[in-house]
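Researcher: Next entry in the queue.
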Amino acid sequence: MDLKFIVDTQLPPILATYLQEKGIDAIHTTFFPDGHLLADAQISLIALQEDRIVITKDSDFPDAFFLKGPPPRVIHIRLGNIRNRDLLDFLEPRWPLLCDLLVADSGMVVINREQIISY
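Model: Structure for this entry, 119 residues:
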């Protein structure tokens, strides 16, 4: 199963570039016209139409997940403010597990410094 991702506005475009360099189909919201202004509903619609998983640090996506369930599926990154390089360094060793959880049909994966939780 090939996973596809859309990286939300609050996360840096370099995250999508990093994933692309790993051969992963990933786009950042800034890829779209006025992408930095895309509302959560628009991002969800893109994710649904293109079968993408939302990568976000915005708590609105997990809130919607708990109210409605998937889709869209979500990776919720809860690391606070973090430098771009530190974000990539943090995700690198954890990325295979995140993907394994999503392939196993997790609707949402929450990641913070202490743990990874799959729903």
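Model: The chain has one domain: 4-118.
Researcher: Noted, moving on.
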